[in-house]
Amino acid sequence: MSVPLTLLGLLEREPSHGYDLKRDYDTYFGRGKSLPFGQVYSTLSRLARDGKVVMDEIAAGGGPDRKRYVITDAGATEVNAWLTEPVAAEPHLQSVLFAKVVLALMLDRPAEEYLDTQRRAHLARMRELTEIKRTGGLVDGLLADHGLFHLEADLRWIDTTAARLDALRDQVRS
Amino acid sequence: MTAMLRARSVSLSFGDTPALRGADFLVDTGEIVAIMGPSGSGKSTLLHCLAGILVPDEGEIHVGGERLDTMGEAARSALRRDRFGFVFQFGQLVPELTAAENVALPLLLSGMRRAEAARRADLRMAELGLDGLGGRRSGELSGGQAQRVALARALVAEPEVIFADEPTGSLDSLTGEQVMDLLVGTAREQGTTVVLVTHDARVAAYADREVMVRDGRVTSPVGTS
């Protein structure tokens, strides 16, 4: 899971303080492993250094929680590229895909299209593995099977999520 | 590549229930395409329209250079018999006939002499590993054997297009793989076009590409040309 890209996605929704970003990250993506404050602010500092966020307010008294972060055009371009590109079709992608789907819904982006793109990427990889099974030996075939079963599980998750997008949109935008 | 099958803005309702709402589809000669989608999305209805089993309310179906949707029933029936082969989920073998007689059936219906039809049926069954099973009726065959007989029947007349609707849906995964290996291997050897409906990604992965049907429309890229 990419913490910088996820924080950028949350910032595209609205300018936010570090505290708000940590709260939303933990709510939607933490799942029992909260993001340390130190990592939130070090990530935001790097994003600011790279021109992907800027600070628009520093209240009197200073301190990291007084700063409000705003995404820049460069940051928004990076979020868009990340959401649009399918993840490499490998097993155990659910957390990355889940983050993309939730952020797409928060940002009113076409989450269903992203899932379709991901489905095509998965099926393309499954075609390659199926061809290996058809033309290779037993060992290659069994290794291909291992990948195929994991990719199939991802696809089932993609289909289930696609069927529940409306309910998820209501939840993350309420 | 030349287009073998093309659907343009095809719509079809069953009573008040729309099954297809302006579906577009294209498959090139020799291509193997999987039609995927959720239950009730219209994927089987699209296959039945492409195969001339159902006639759309609106839109056009073209097979090669011919318009299918405006043909009369007799012409569509002849086209299905002479140019198409079919494999369905449960084989749909004629239970009163032996396996060999089932395989020979499309040849006999096309007017071939009985001895020649039997010879070709035997050859096709041997290619699909069905030696020695020609005398059995469908009730005496395992699910995998019955589906291979159905596949032999679909291939025996060397059709231009094979339509397969959930061809492995009633089989365990290993037997399903054997059936798909045979279907895809033979189709590639002969240059046969295959249109395959499946909800199973592992089956779809045998195709050259897939299209998604959702709410009666083809929502992913409809073709390559």
TrEMBL record, chain A:
One of its GO terms (molecular function) is DNA binding. Pfam families: PadR (PF03551). InterPro entries: Tscrpt_reg_PadR_N, WH-like_DNA-bd_sf, WH_DNA-bd_sf. Residues 7-79 form the Transcription regulator PadR N-terminal domain. The keyword Disulfide bond does not apply. Coiled coil: none annotated. Keywords: DNA-binding. Transmembrane segments: none annotated. PANTHER family: NEGATIVE TRANSCRIPTION REGULATOR PADR, TRANSCRIPTIONAL REGULATOR YQJI. This is DNA-binding transcriptional regulator, PadR family. It comes from Paractinoplanes atraurantiacus.
UniProtKB/TrEMBL annotation, chain B:
Gene3D superfamilies: P-loop containing nucleotide triphosphate hydrolases. Keywords: ATP-binding, Nucleotide-binding, Transport. Residues 5-225 form the ABC transporter domain. GO terms for molecular function: ATP binding; ATP hydrolysis activity; transmembrane transporter activity. InterPro entries: AAA+_ATPase, ABC_transporter-like_ATP-bd, ABC_transporter-like_CS, ABC_transpr_LolD-like, MacB-like_ATP-bd, P-loop_NTPase. Transmembrane segments: none annotated. GO terms for cellular component: membrane protein complex; plasma membrane. CDD domains: ABC_MJ0796_LolCDE_FtsE. The keyword Nucleotide-binding applies. PANTHER family: ABC TRANSPORTER RELATED, IMPORT ATP-BINDING PROTEIN. This is Putative ABC transport system ATP-binding protein. It comes from Paractinoplanes atraurantiacus. The lineage of its organism: Bacteria, Bacillati, Actinomycetota, Actinomycetes, Micromonosporales.
